[in-house]
Amino acid sequence: DAMVIQNPRYQVTQFGKPVTLSCSQTLNHNVMYWYQQKSSQAPKLLFHYYDKDFNNEADTPDNFQSRRPNTSFCFLDIRSPGLGDAAMYLCATSRGLTSVADTQYFGPGTRLTVL
Amino acid sequence: QKEVEQDPGPLSVPEGAIVSLNCTYSNSAFQYFMWYRQYSRKGPELLMYTYSSGNKEDGRFTAQVDKSSKYISLFIRDSQPSDSATYLCAMGFGAAGNKLTFGGGTRVLVKP
Q: For FRET with B56, which of A19, A37, A65, A86 sits at 20 to 30 Å CA-CA?
């Protein structure tokens, strides 16, 4: 089945220790998104890629970076995690950006714990 | 004031009851409206989307949009314990990069 896969599902890191989260997709979608979702809160968009074009949200901290080496994979790098970065990180994909039919499909998420 | 408001619940109903969920929003430019279901420790799963005002039905689910009141609803008929989840509404602008604005989610518990 075509899907969005996130690894690992659970990640524990130490305060200030860099961490990388991974997302892959078999949908061959052009757009990949990263969201942060804290407990009982709405998902918050961090950034997205349309193909290789990177689009950062204005309020995304510099501590968060992303890489998309090819169509299938996208990585979220947190350079110096703080306690406030503990959250569920969701990857999503969509075929495009301009049509109501370009709905977003989410992966299962990676739950990040910062000690 | 948040752009999209959603009662966090929890909303507890007996099996077989109708579940009624809603969101209000402040930006009249939103053009399309979605409902996602999110099980505990899982990613959101798209349930339904509607474009502009009106009703849309899909099996046990009915989505309604009232743009004049800036109010959207999701109804779940004949609710099942497997419907227990958090339901997130989301809204977008058709020509603004597919960016979605989510509500905070309503937790629903359907008791057998």
A: A37
